[in-house]
Amino acid sequence: MTVCMAPCPIVFDLDGTLIDSAPDIHASVNAVLLQQDVAPLSLDRIRSFVGGGVEVLWTKIVAATGIEPGLQRDLIAAFMARYHDATRLTRLFPGAFEALGVLADRGHPLGICTNKPLGPTVAVLDHFGIRQLFGIVIAGDSLPQKKPDPAPLRAALQGLGADPDTPKALYVGDSEFDAACAAAVPVPFLIYSRGYRLKPLEQLPHRAAFDDFSILPRLVEDEAMA
Ligand SMILES: O=C(O)COP(=O)(O)O
């Protein structure tokens, strides 16, 4: 069966897929914890909390630190005040910029579907000069639902002109949230294996995995021929 005739729409996750943003998230979280006289959390710990959006992140931080749960809303506000344009410690994963350029040049409509809020999403896309590559950006606060609910990815596909009920398209992500979301649409899922997932790769449903962005354009071509 032909899954995707080139150039098919391709939607990307952001944190842990295109960008390594955990260091900035970690720095902003610990600055807020410091204000509360709470001991800092390690980068690995914070990275393991990323994927479900800001509320999930802070629910996990509150559980891990024993902070009074009633403070969570205020802590999220303090975090967002720091994180909304934090890009200093964030990096594009190696080869991601070039792979996006190749796919865009081949005519693939590109989109973003992330659980990160829209403010920091746009800030980071602008920071790396890649915002104009994406025809649609669906962020964690764009809709009432977040991944793994399929609604955000369906909205991104629609925004790129794909019929989400017969999506000849691809989703590229790194996490449990992304795999479950792609399966729920359903749309073929390509997983970046150097991202932030917690489980072994084989436990996440995916069409193909890659650990180097230089092979992504070929994987996309393979899907077109499948
Ligand atoms: O900010 C998060 O928690 C997750 O963002 P992502 O969907 O881009 O991985």
TrEMBL record:
Catalyzed reactions? 2-phosphoglycolate + H2O = glycolate + phosphate
Sequence positions that bind Mg(2+): 13, 15, 174
* Single annotated GO MF: phosphoglycolate phosphatase activity
Q: In which pathway does it act?
A: Organic acid metabolism; glycolate biosynthesis; glycolate from 2-phosphoglycolate: step 1/1
Write the Enzyme Commission number(s) for this entry. 3.1.3.18
Q: What does this protein do?
A: Specifically catalyzes the dephosphorylation of 2-phosphoglycolate. Is involved in the dissimilation of the intracellular 2-phosphoglycolate formed during the DNA repair of 3'-phosphoglycolate ends, a major class of DNA lesions induced by oxidative stress.
The protein depicted here goes by the name: Phosphoglycolate phosphatase
Q: Which organism is it from?
A: Paracoccus marinaquae
**Gene (UniProt):** gph
